[in-house]
Design a protein that fits this description.
This protein has 166 residues and is an alpha/beta fold. The protein contains 4 helices and 6 strands, in the order E-E-E-H-E-H-E-H-H-E. 38% of the residues lie in helices and 21% in strands. Helix 1 crosses helix 2 and helix 3 packs across helix 4. The two termini are 27 Å apart. Keywords: Cytoplasm, Hydrolase, Nuclease, Ribosome biogenesis.
């Protein structure tokens, strides 16, 4: 099996108010939390009629550049049935804007069903009180998204998820 290029991978959990960010080591072995980024909901347009780069996208793009990221994985929230809804469309739009900003670094969408529930369970198991989950839950979900993608990479020797065109 051919090996994937070396480089950190980023995991992104897009929420309504906050975005969780996680990163891996350059060998793609372990996902770790990085930070929680405030979400920008209104995307301004440029003078040419395109979409301006928002602070949240710019922050993640900066992190990708700083870490020499090989790929960015964005969680794709689907219903348990597998169907897509409003949150899915929002994540797809965010991923497309991010892909334009980080190109030529590839962006992939990966299924994130149940990641927030799993993140809450992990935090409870670690002894964190539920009231203290809010500041870190998005990062914990991003870690789960990224670790799943890393596991898929190791199993298949290919990138996980659906490629997003820049």
């Amino acid at each position: 099996m051919p090996e994937l290029p070396r480089g950190a991978r980023l995991g992104v959990d897009v929420g309504k108010a906050r975005i969780g960010l996680a990163a891996s080591d350059p060998d793609g072995l372990i996902a770790s939390p990085v930070e929680t980024v405030s979400r920008v909901l209104k995307v301004p347009t440029t003078a040419e009629g395109g979409q301006a780069v928002t602070a949240d996208v710019a922050r993640i793009a900066h992190e990708a550049a700083e870490r020499f990221a090989a790929v960015v994985y964005v969680g794709l929230p689907r219903h348990l049935s597998g169907h897509e809804g409003a949150a899915t469309a929002d994540a797809r739009g965010f991923a497309a804007r991010l892909a334009r900003e980080v190109a030529p670094v590839p962006v992939h969408l990966v299924d994130e069903r149940m990641t927030t529930v799993t993140a809450h369970a992990h935090l409870r198991a670690a002894g964190k009180k539920t009231a203290k989950h809010r500041p870190v839950i998005d990062q914990a979900a991003a870690v789960i998204i990224l670790q799943h993608a890393l596991d898929v990479e190791r199993t298949t020797a290919d990138r996980a998820g659906e490629h997003v065109d820049a």
